[in-house]
Write a structure and sequence with these properties.
By secondary structure, the protein is mainly alpha-helical. The protein contains 18 helices and seven strands. It has helices at residues 17-24, 28-36, 55-65, 98-104, 107-116, 129-140, 148-161, 171-188, 203-207, 218-230, 238-248, 253-264, 273-286, 290-298, 316-325, 332-346, 355-365, 372-393, and strands spanning 4-5, 14-16, 42-44, 51-54, 84-87, 90-93, 96-97. The protein has a four-stranded mixed sheet with strand order 1-3-4-2. Strands 5-6-7 form a three-stranded antiparallel sheet. The longest helix is centred in the C-terminal third of the chain and has 22 residues, at 372-393. Mean pLDDT is 90; it is low at 1-11 and 67-76.
């Protein structure tokens, strides 16, 4: 859009080019690239020097783009996706409030709807016996100290090896692989302690004995199922970007999921719920969150489970899980400790609870290990990676190709 002269005085709600660039996290010239693509509108500043931009429009672009700058070669890294929208502290899947979906539908129903646009009440995913057996044998060969993400990664590889049609990237073939892969991942995980393995039922029910030896009850299962729905996708998180890069190279869906799992294990992504679990467990054991928060602040550590770069207020996913946890009697102590963590930290910084803290309430209350939240995250997000792969398979291959900016010594250099 071409700049038009601005009539009258500059509006207080308009930003200069420098301010817009800072808010978007890009260079000033990139702001004008957004204008040329029609992603931003601009108005010539008073006096004809520079341009101004509507503040709300810039903020909306920042939320949509995650403040990603186009590559130097002109490749556009602002992905257009129809899956997730995060706007005004709300979280939507294909335009539908995700928190309402989590309250009304199971994980499998939402995954199927996310992939196909069709809601199939009562849909269940089943693992092919041969695939599940291969995944269990592979997982069983790992050292005893292996974590759940280690097990999930090798389970994906085993499942891929049993699928000779995995290179068929037609939507029908990809969805068939996804419907069998997700329950295979769950079924390949070992059952905890003396828990009895669930035969059939929802994915949440099948996952439960892999997280805790305590028997499942309806309210706790409802929280787990809702958590699976709420973690299914969350815009272009690091693992989702990795999955889309793999899909752009036309990697098969198992390789796409492997790429996502490789990034998910980072302590700043899928593993972030572990520190929140340990902090909350300590608060429950000590009978107060105040000294635990004080210890974190005294040693310069961030208080886990608080704050999210995409939300100014409370993470809506956490708010939904906290409400559901109210119906879980054994969660009362952990829930009170979590609220005390938020209230105590608020004296120091205005941070709100995120989904990692809500997952920690579930894992602490139900006797799960610290890595339980990471397991739930990985299983759930697999469906989201598949959804993004389906989108990316419809794009031009290898379009995600940023150019490196060489910063080494200029040639010619002597041979070492």
């Amino acid at each position: 859009m071409t700049d038009q002269p601005e009539p009258g005085r500059q509006d207080a709600h308009r930003l200069t080019t420098r301010e817009a660039a800072e808010l978007l996290g890009v260079k000033p010239e990139t702001v004008y690239a957004y204008v040329s693509r029609g992603q931003l509108s601009s108005v010539r500043a008073v006096g004809g020097r520079g341009s101004t931009f509507d503040a709300e429009e810039v903020r909306a672009l920042a939320r949509r783009s995650g403040r990603r700058e186009p590559s130097p070669a002109g490749g556009d890294l602002v992905f257009r996706t129809g899956i997730t929208l995060i706007e005004e502290d709300r979280y939507y899947l294909r335009g539908v409030d995700a928190t309402e979906l989590a309250r009304r539908h199971s994980y499998e129903e939402v995954a199927e709807w996310l992939w196909t646009g069709e809601l199939r009440p009562g849909v269940r995913f089943e693992a092919p016996p041969e695939t599940l057996a291969a995944a269990r044998r592979t997982v069983g060969a790992l050292p005893a100290h292996s974590g759940s993400t280690d097990r999930l990664r090798v389970a994906v590889t085993a499942a891929a090896a049993t699928d000779p049609l995995r290179f068929d990237l037609s939507p029908e073939a990809v969805l068939s692989s996804a419907r069998s892969l997700i329950p295979t991942l769950v079924g390949a995980l070992p059952v905890v302690g003396g828990a009895s393995e669930a035969a059939g039922g929802s994915l949440a029910r099948q996952l439960w004995p892999r997280l805790t030896a305590r028997p499942a009850d309806a309210p706790a299962l409802a929280v787990l199922d809702a958590a699976l729905v709420l973690l299914i996708d969350h815009d272009l998180a690091a693992s989702t970007l990795a999955a889309r890069v793999a899909a752009s190279a036309r990697a098969h869906p198992y390789a796409v999921v492997s790429a996502g799992l490789g990034v998910l294990e980072g302590p700043l992504h899928g593993a972030a719920s572990g520190p929140a679990h340990r902090m909350l467990q300590e608060a429950v054991d000590r009978g107060s969150a105040v000294p635990v928060v004080a210890d974190h602040l005294r040693t310069g550590r961030r208080v886990p489970g608080l704050g999210h770069r995409l939300y100014r207020g409370e993470d809506p996913r956490a708010r939904t899980l906290f409400a559901l946890l109210e119906d879980v009697p054994q969660a009362a102590g952990a829930l009170a400790a979590a609220r005390e963590v938020v209230a105590t930290t608020a004296r120091h910084a205005p941070l709100h609870a995120n989904i990692d803290l809500a997952l920690a309430v579930l894992s602490v209350a139900c006797g799960m290990a610290a890595e339980a939240g990471e397991t739930v995250f990985a299983v759930s997000r697999t469906a989201g990676w598949i959804a993004h792969a389906l989108e990316e398979y419809g794009e031009r291959p290898l379009r995600i190709r940023p150019s490196g900016q060489y910063a080494g010594p200029r040639p010619p250099q002597p041979i070492p």
